[in-house]
Amino acid sequence: MSGSSVAVVGLGVVGARVARQLTSSSLAVFVHDRRTDLQEATARALKARTIDSPIDVRPSETAVVVLATPSRQGWLTRCLVERGVHVVCTSDDVEDVRDLLELDGVARTNNVSIVVGATASPGLSGLLVAELASRVDVIDEIHVGVHGTGGPACARQHHRALANDAPGWHDGEWISRPGGSGRELLWFPEPIGSRDCYRAELADPLTLQRAFPSASRISARVSATRRDRLTARLPMMSPPHAEGGLGAVRVEIRGSRGVERRTEVAGAAERTGVISAATASAAAVSALSSDLPAGVVVLGARGLPNRALLDDVIKRGINIYEYVGSGA
Amino acid sequence: MKILRRAIAAITLTGMAAAVLRIRGKGGVPPERGGWRELTRPPS
Fold first, then answer.
1. Average pLDDT of the residues in A152-177
2. What is the CATH number of domain A124-274?
3. Do strands A217-223 and A138-147 pair parallel, antiparallel, or not at all (unpaired)?
4. What is the largest CA-CA distance in chain B?
5. Quick one: which of A27, A198, A328, B24 has the fewest CB in 10 Å?
6. pLDDT tens for each residue of A114-145
7. pLDDT at B26
C-alpha cells in the first residue's frame, strides 16, 4: 500500500464535511456518492476527483477510505480491507458496529486499520474518556449522553434507537434494557443545558468496553422528548430535517485517585454532523500517517495517539468543555 | 375484620411515611454551583 489520498464514500451531512475538511488540509481526495449529481457537484466545489464505485479504490493511490454511508458498512469495509486499504467507519448502528468489531482478524492479516465508530458518539466520546482517564487511577464507570442528530439517516437511527433494547455493560456482563427507560437529567455544555435522557440502542457501550475493559459499568443515553418516546415504536410522523440543529456529547467517568472518589465530566456542543466530521477527519489523517495499529481501532483505546487525535478535533473547530463545581 | 384493620393501618402508616419523605426529603437536586469551562489539559 503506497497511496497518499483519501476516498470519502457517501456525501451526506457528515461525508461532505469530511471531504471539505480533508481537501482544505491539502490532501488529495476522491469522492463517491450514489447520487451522481451530488457527487459531481461536490467534486467540482472541492476540486476533488470522483470514483464510480467504492470497490474501484486502488490501494496504489488511495490509502484510506472514509465510509459515511447511511447503509450498513460491514460488507464494504471487509472488501476494502481485503484490498489493503485503511477504513474509517462512521456507522453508529449497533448491529453494524458489532459486525465491524469482528473484522479485527481480517484487518490484522492485511496489516491495515479499521476505525470503528469515528463519529460524535461513538468516537469523540472515546477520546474524551481517554482525556479524563489521566485524572483518575482507576475508571469504574463511564456514562455517555448524546443530544441531537446529524443528517436524516442519523435522525432515523435516533428514532429507532429509542424503540430498541439498549446494550449496557454492568458489573462485568452485558445487559439489555428497554429503550426509552432509565430517565436521567443530564447537563450538556451551553447552550444545550439540561435534557432528559433515556437508554437507547446506542453503540457507545460496545466501543467503550473494548477501549476501557477495566470499567465495570458503561451506559449511554440519548436525549428525547415525551413525543419522541411515545412515537418511537411508530413510523416517523414527519420526514427528518436535512440536518439536525445544535447537538452535544457528554461523558462522565467515575473512578478513584488514591483513596478519593472522583467524578469527571467533559463534553462538546456543536452540530452533530460537524462533530462527527471532525472526528472522522482526524481519524483519517491519523490512519494516513500510519499512526494507528493494524486491526480494529476504537478511539480512546490504550496505545492510540488519543491526545493528538483530540488536538486535531479541537483544531477543526470543536470546543471541548469540562464541568467544574458541585455534583456534575 | 382484624386483617382488614391491619391492612388499613399499614397502608395509612406507609402513606404517612411517604408524605413525610415527599415533603421533607431531598431528592436529586440540580447543580447549584459550578458550570462548564474550557477543558484544561496537562502539558504533554
1. 89
2. 3.30.360.10
3. parallel
4. 76
5. B24
6. 999 999 999 999 999 999 999 999 999 999 99
7. 60
Q: Is B36 on the interface with A (CB under 8 A)?
A: yes
A134 with B30: Cβ contact below 8 A: no
Question: What's the CA gap between A212 and A143, in Å, rounded?
Answer: 12
- Interface with A, mutate which of B29, B32, B36, B37 (most A CBs under 10 A): B36
pLDDT at A2: 56
The phi and psi torsions of A66 (rounded to 5 degrees) equal -100, 120
User: Can you give the pLDDT at residue B25?
Assistant: 63
CATH 3.90.79.10 fits A5-120+275-312, yes or no: no
Compute the count of residue pairs across chains A and B with CB atoms less than 8 Å apart.
46
Q: Are A181 and A198 in contact (CB under 8 A)?
A: yes
Partner-chain contact B39 A189, CB within 8 Å: no
pLDDT at B31: 59
- Residue B5, chain A, CB below 8 Å: the answer is no
Q: Which chain B residues have a beta carbon less than 8 Å from that of A187?
A: 30-31
Going through chain A in order, the beta strands assigned E by DSSP cover 5-9, 29-32, 49-50, 62-67, 86-89, 113-115, 138-147, 166-170, 173-177, 184-188, 193-199, 217-223, 246-257, 260-271, 295-297, 321-324
Please name the member of B32, B33, B40 whose beta carbon is closest to the beta carbon of A322. B40
Percent of chain A at pLDDT > 90 equals 76
| B37 → closest Cβ in A131, A307, A324 | A324
Domain boundaries, chain A: 5-120+275-312, 124-274
Q: What share of chain B is helix, strand, coil (3-state, %, to 5)?
A: 50, 10, 40
pTM of the model: 0.88
Query: What cell does A133 get?
Result: 482517564
Which residues have C-beta within 8 Å of that of residue A188, sequence separation ≥ 6? A145, A147, A194, A195, A223, A248, A250, A267, A269
Closest chain B residue to A306, measured at CA? B44
Instruction: Tell me which amino acid residue A328 is.
Output: A
CB contact under 8 A, A323 and B34: yes
Closest approach of A189 to chain B, Cα-based (Å): 6
